Amino acid sequence: MDNPQNIAPSRVSSGTRSSARSGGVLHVNVRHTSHFTVVGNHLAQHQELSLVAIGLAVHIQSLPDGAKIGIKFLVERFPESEYRIAEALRELEAKGYLKRTRERLASGRVITSSTSYNQPCEVAADPPPVPVPVPVPAAAPAAASVEAAAPVLVAAPAPALAPVPAPRRQEPTPDPDLHRRASAILLGLRREAPVLVLSENDIRSLAPAVAAWLERDAAPASITLALTTDLPVPLKYPAKLLAHRLSALLPAAVPPAPFTPPPVPLQNCDDCDRAFRAPEPGRCGECIAELPVSA
Fold first, then answer.
1. Which of 12, 26, 60, 268 holds its CA 20 to 30 A away from the CA of 6?
2. H-only helix segments in 107-199
3. SS3 101
4. Are strands 152-155 and 98-104 parallel, antiparallel or unpaired?
5. In 3-state terms, what secondary structure has residue 200?
6. Which tens digit of pLDDT belongs to each residue from 86-131?
7. pTM of the shown model
8. H or E stretch covering 71
């Protein structure tokens, strides 16, 4: 049996207007004739799904068959992080709106097939625990006539789910001067490309990556050139593009120069006053050779 659907009225009554004045929502509905998706209230008003999961489910249901909904594609499409999108996909799987299965092709490549449901499907329950027989110690000789006790069955513990690691955040460089120079480079990008207008949060997030370039002896002009050349049009998410370029184009570290020992200093011989090289003052080699040999 279908769930009851709440449909907002097409015309606003006087009672609805009064509720809007008191803080309630006022609907103005226009009938769609093309390019629309029907979404049930069981999804739009779900009490346990997060707002990100509900919005992602609506987006997936609006896509045609064969569209890509992998995490990589969704991260490029939306501003949410990879961690939040992965968590939303797991929510939809748990509530029966999405099913993902891994398949191995004849070529050996493994792909993930996804199925979206506009009505929640039945979610497969966890398999029942496997009974594990526990051996019973052998009975004493005096009790040999007593019937052996039946083995005790103990349910095997369910495998623990590995915790989902939180996205790694790059901490600011401890060198305040380096961090200040990196921030100045990011702030100056808008002079070369007006679309690269960054917020204060973007500057704080990207400054450590720019500082890594400076630590590798990259000139500020070369950093600016790498970040402003061949920008896509239109550019939706400037901070994401800069973070990708700073990571993908990071120059190789310059190896340290080989160690060259300092030259041995010149000294004046104490006897003949001729110059010779030695770490400390004293006699030259010829004067030492002329010294009498003690018995």
1. 60
2. 176-187, 189-192
3. strand
4. unpaired
5. helix
6. 899 999 989 899 988 888 888 878 788 889 998 988 766 555 555 5
7. 0.38
8. helix 71-77
